């Protein structure tokens, strides 16, 4: 799939006014093996680029970076909502494939001490993981909880109050 983009000054709206959607000077193509390639304004192809949220926890709908395989930033998109639908949809699809955020539905067990061994039921099935330190459990003001395991995988509890009482007790004893 090719998603070409031109500067907004060259794409007026139906009434002749400049387009308000962001129109990057690059385009994305989905390669046959499923990864994205970015073709920059000079026509250079950057293969197997990654799409990353700049602030995944604090601003999930916010800025997105497109980076080369070596980590060099090729493009910055702020925010996704300013893009035309074809490009926005392609970037959102890539982000959803990349991001792995299991939602904890029930806590089966948590070992004492650090590191803590967890056994949970998520929206993706039973998971076992290790949490290195109590600081890797973050309680947000909105009642959600984010848990990061020892290899960097994040788990979400969207509403602590919606967990069963046993799961809440297991989590409460960690405070």
Overview of the molecule:
The longest helix is centred in the middle third of the chain and has 14 residues, at 85-98. Mean pLDDT is 83; it is low at 1-20. The chain folds into two domains: 2-98, no CATH class; 104-172, no CATH class. The chain is mainly beta. It is elongated, with a radius of gyration of 21 Å. The chain starts with a strand and ends with a helix. The chain has helices at residues 85-98, 165-172, and strands at 2-3, 27-30, 36-39, 45-53, 64-67, 73-77, 104-110, 116-122, 125-131, 137-139, 145-148, 154-157. It has two helices and twelve strands; from the N terminus they run ββββββαββββββα. The strands form three sheets. It has a six-stranded antiparallel β-sheet.
Defining key terms:
34% strand; disordered N terminus; 12 strands; 175 residues; 2 domains; six-stranded antiparallel beta sheet; mainly beta; three-stranded antiparallel beta sheet
Concise overview:
This protein has helices spanning 85-98, 165-172, and strands at residues 2-3, 27-30, 36-39, 45-53, 64-67, 73-77, 104-110, 116-122, 125-131, 137-139, 145-148, 154-157.
């Amino acid at each position: 799939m090719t998603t070409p983009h031109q500067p907004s000054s060259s794409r007026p709206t139906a009434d002749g006014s400049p387009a308000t959607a962001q129109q990057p000077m690059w385009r994305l193509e989905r390669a046959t093996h499923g990864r994205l390639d970015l073709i920059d304004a000079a026509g250079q192809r950057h293969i197997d680029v990654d799409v990353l949220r700049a602030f995944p926890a604090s601003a999930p709908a916010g800025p997105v970076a497109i980076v080369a395989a070596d980590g060099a930033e090729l493009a910055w998109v702020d925010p996704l909502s300013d893009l035309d639908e074809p490009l926005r949809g392609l970037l959102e699809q890539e982000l959803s494939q990349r991001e792995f955020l299991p939602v904890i539905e029930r806590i089966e067990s948590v070992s004492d001490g650090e590191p803590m061994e967890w056994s949970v039921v998520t929206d993706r099935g039973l998971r076992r993981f290790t949490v290195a330190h109590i600081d890797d459990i973050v309680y947000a003001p909105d009642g959600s909880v984010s848990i990061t395991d020892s290899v960097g995988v994040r788990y979400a509890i969207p509403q602590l109050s919606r967990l069963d009482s046993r799961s809440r007790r297991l989590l409460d004893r960690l405070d």
